[in-house]
Write a structure and sequence with these properties.
With 153 residues, the protein is mainly alpha-helical. It contains six helices and no strands.
Length: 153
């Protein structure tokens, strides 16, 4: 009898844990699966993002005209620095400023670091660290370069 009671308690405990685990699994495991799809979806869309790094439309159009004249940019001059603008800029950065990443149009830390080298080494007013972070100093120097582009191209 005692062995049977022990077995019954053990089975009851196992069933309780399983039921409790399944009950919480439906809420705790379902939400992360949804989040994972959202993240994967965001990654798939990320290369389509416009990243003007603080430039207004006029300034971005100037940069696009410079890219068209010098770095095989063939997309529209629309003032939105999207993937094709950044692919052209990455070609420039790879040729002259130590960019070693893929020509993929994504503005990651490697692209920003090379942009910072370009802005620092060519007199556009960047004086900060080459850290791959597009902070206020990077954006201000990029605007100086963009204003030159507006007046030149």
């Amino acid at each position: 009898m005692r062995a049977m009671t022990k077995a019954l308690v053990g089975v009851s405990t196992a069933v309780g844990i399983a039921v409790g685990g399944l009950a919480t699994a439906s809420t705790s495991f379902a939400a992360p699966a949804q989040d994972a799809r959202t993240v994967a979806s965001a990654d798939a869309v990320a290369p389509l993002a416009v990243v003007n790094l603080g430039l207004n439309t006029t300034q971005a159009k100037g940069v696009q005209r410079w890219l068209r004249a010098n770095w095989s940019y063939t997309d529209s001059i629309d003032g939105e620095l999207g993937p094709n603008s950044w692919k052209a800029f990455q070609r420039h950065l790879k040729a002259h400023h130590g960019y070693t990443g893929a020509i993929d149009g994504s503005v990651g830390s490697g692209t920003v670091s090379a942009l910072q080298r370009f802005l620092k080494n060519n007199g556009w007013g960047y004086t900060g660290a080459i850290d791959g972070i597009a902070g206020s100093g990077t954006q201000a120097a990029f605007k100086t370069f963009a204003n030159w582009c507006v007046n030149t191209y």
